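Structure ticket #2291
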Amino acid sequence: MSIERFKRQLGLVYQERVEDVRVLVYGTNPIVPYLVMQLAFLGTGFSQGGIFVYSEEASVEKEHVRGQFLLKEEDIGRRYEEAIVSRISEAVPSAKAYVCDKLEPHRYDIVMMCPAVGEASKIDHNRVVYGYIGSSAAYIGSKPVEVVFEENIITPSLATAAASLMAQEMLRVLELIRPTEVEEVHITVNYRLRRPGIYEDVFRREQKPIFRALIGGERFRAFPEEVKEGGRALKDEVFFRVLIDPNSLLSRLIVDSIEIIEPIPAEYRRPKEQILVAPFMNAKIEEGTLVEEKVGLPKTLEVSKKLAFVGAGGVGCWALAALAVSPISGLDLVIVDMDDRVEMHNLNRQVLYGVEHIGRPKAIVAAEAVKQINPVIKCKGYCTEVREAVIIDFIEEEKQEEAEVFEEKFEEASLPELKIVDESYDMMSDLKESDYIVTSVDNLHTRYLLSIISELTGSVFINAGAERFLGNIDVIDHSRGCLVCWYGEDIKYDMQRISCTGELPILSIVTTVSLIGALQTLILLAHLTGIKMTLHSLYYSGKTNNISYCAREKCPFHRELPSHPQHLNLANYKIW
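Resolution: structure written out below.
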């Protein structure tokens, strides 16, 4: 097991159990490539288990290659499951994926059914999760349903979202989720050593030596302390306290073995009868059939729009990937992320990055990946940060005095200096020209600044966030307030980067970030088509695998909101 790769999810799931799971993926519908990828990102089967892929003697066709980025054009004509297994082994070399030649369901812990039209829809097993997508909605559940599939502009986003929910359902049904999350573990090993003269050797030397302990093949710093009895230090005994590095293999193995003895709530493990991904609020299950009202989604889309994606982490990567594989052209895409390097622990959920990208700036690598997936998209990346000082620089000269009031509110805050700062002004020019700002950035203050830019330029603001098993998306309608109206004044001054707080990053897992990223892009694509969409708030809870849409009594969109120039701290001045 790669401890470094999975360290962001060790406190969320029982990783050793995940790696022993034997899962059968059956079928060839558009969910399959995304599902196999997510299972591999989770580490499913990496140890004693495996991911087994089965289809009914299907070959890769052109429609299998469209709308995803696992299978390639050169796979057309190959046996479907062989192509899937080969490609996932390239993408995630540690993955244990196999072609299933003989269908024996009893050999597997769980079966994931993704049948295409004409493929068998039932299988004899006590743990089965079904996944289907229609034209504008997806179904995940414990029973098969009839679906009319029509490929269109949002098919890749729907397939990604459905795969996320299926993978999460596997974690739930097999009881692989920790009910109580392990946020951090600090491990100390204590030694009490005895030999004649040890006190003199340790404490009375002119030059104090640095002591280290070798535990499990790893070296750790050891700190000596006196052993006292009756108020006097013993001369033949010394107490050593060894602090185990939280990033060490030993620490990670101990964390993974920690199990809180507690009952698992039934709602965390009970199979979901049905989950509907219905962002257009137009779908229902009726007499075993997914019934959808038509919304007129096009098969392809050509638009001349500029999009700014701010944040290229877990959510941002999946949002960008879903956009890149969608049949769309004419886009001018800008990617902004301040992280100047991809790290190993990003690779369990950030789909645009591989081992070969470790150490390189995220925004630059993400832009390259998007262009590789979809060469017709114009794309560039900025490894920089959105800062209030850059916004103020664009304010007209005669309004500078008023802007200084805004700047003073942040003079005591310490923002990290970046190596690449000259790009900030070019990036800002691109932001002010953008028709849409799509963000999943990791701190509230930057979201606030983006909200200002969006309001003053009239761009659509699609805000998303995800951590642990929780996620949300907001579509900010500036006629109904701004981000501060929705979430309060405190966000203006909250510069804490929640994904990088403390020595260990906050817990995160692929099933959550991929779902939120895919739905963020789905909402974006719906807006780009010009189709009216009533959805403006979405919430996800992974432990119950539940998506909820806009609770009217709690949703800021449905409240009367006053004029809010004070939230901008710019007296509603037009910057550009």
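Closing remark: Residues 395-421, 500-504, 570-576 have pLDDT under 50 and may be disordered.
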